[in-house]
Amino acid sequence: MRRARYAFGLKYVIVIADGAGDLPIAELGGKTPLQAAATPTMDGLARSGRLATARTTPAGWAAGSDVCTMCLLGYDPVRYHTGRAPLEAAASGVQAGASDWIFRLNLVTVGPDDAGSPDSGLMLDHSAGAISDAEAAAIVPDLLAHWRRDVPELAERLTLRHGVSYRSILVDASGRRFDGVVCTPPHEVPRQPWAAHLPRAARDDRGDAEAAEFLRELMLSAREFLPGHAVNVTRRAKGLREANMAWIWGQGTKPDMPSFESRFGLRGAMLTPVDLLRGIAALIGWDRLEPPGMTSYHDNDYATQGRWACDAIDRYDIVCCHVESPDESSHQGDWRTKVAGIEAIDREVVAPIVAKLRSLSPRVGRGTGANAGADAGWRLMILPDHYTLVSTRKHDATPVPVLLAGQGFAAPRPATAYSEAEAAASDLHIAHGHELMEFFLRHALPDPRRG
To answer: pLDDT tens digits for 182-199?
Structure first.
C-alpha cells in the first residue's frame, strides 16, 4: 500500500547546484564562490528560511555525485549503491544481466609521451576538452570496432554505448568479476601521472589481478588507437584537446531500489543534463524531463531549464532541478566561471521557481502562523550534492550547506545569506545524509526505533 503523503497537497522542489560548495579562494578575497556570487534570491530565502548542513558522503566513502545524490534523495548508499556506472546505465536503457558488470568510460585527454613536455604522462582533462556529443558519438563505435580487431579475446562479450559528451557505458557479459579491482575516477587525478592510477587489484588474488589487467589492456589499446581517429585529427588542427584515451571506472552490477512513490507517496520528476542523475531518477520511478539547451557546462540554457522546472511544478508533487555547471567549472580550476554559474542558477533557475511557488494558492497547503499565506503551499530545498574544490579540482566530503524554505522552515536565528559558513554556524546538522529527504518532507528526522 502506498504511504500517505507527508503533507497533503504541498509542492516540493529541490535545486541541486552540483559542486557549488567550496573553500575560500585567494583570488576572491578569501571568499568562496558561493559567498562571492551575487545571489539575492537565495540570500533572501536564507533570511526567511532555515540553513543546515548535511553529510551526503557516508564515512568511508568517496565524495561523488552517485553517492551524494542517492543520499540527498533519501536512499542510503550503504544499502542501495552497487557502483556508479549501473546508475548511469539505467538512464539509457542499457541491457545488462544480473551478473554482468557495468562500467563508466570517459574519453579523456592525457599528456604526450615526450619526456621533454611539462604535460608528459599527466591526466590533463577528464572530459577531453568538453568534447561534443556528436564528436564522441563518432568515436565510440569505432573504438569498440578497434577493440574487436586488436584484442578480440577481450572484446568478444563487450558492448559500448555512448551517453552524453565524454561519458559512455561499457558492459562486460563475460562472467568476469571486478569487485576486487580498484578503478580511479579520472576527475580525481587532475595533472597527476595517469599510469599510476590504472586499474589494480585490491587484494592479493589471481582473479582480481587478471580482471585489472583486462581493463588496463583495453585502456592502453585505446591509447594507441584514438590519437589517429578523424575526430582527433580535426580537434588537433583546431587547437582543441584530443580524446586520446579511454578511461574505465565506476564498475558495478544492477541495483535494486524501491520507487520514491512507494516510500514517500509522492510523484516526482528530474531535470538534469547528466546520465547519472537520469539513471537514479529512472531507478526510483521519476519522470525525466529534457529541456532544450540543457548542458553540463556554462553554455547551459539556465532560463529554459528554470521555465521547465516551473511548468513541472503543476504536474508533479516533487521536482528536482539539477544544474551541473559549477562542478565542471571546479574540475577545470575556473573560479570565474563557477561564480558566474552560481549567479545564473540564482537568477534564471531559483528566482523563477520561487515566483512560481509563491503564486500558488495558499489553500493548496496547510501553513499556520508565520508560515501561513504565500509560503503555505510549498517547500524548497537548495544544496550542492558535494563540494568540488577549485584549488584541487576534486570533490570533497565536507558536509554541504542546505537551504530550506517554505512551510515550516523558519530558523530560531535567521541567517543573512546562503553560504557554507552561515550553514556551518546554524543549529541543524544532519549527520546521515539519506535522512535529509525525510526532514525536508515531514520536518522531522526519522525515528531510529522504526528500523
So the answer is: 999 999 999 999 999 999
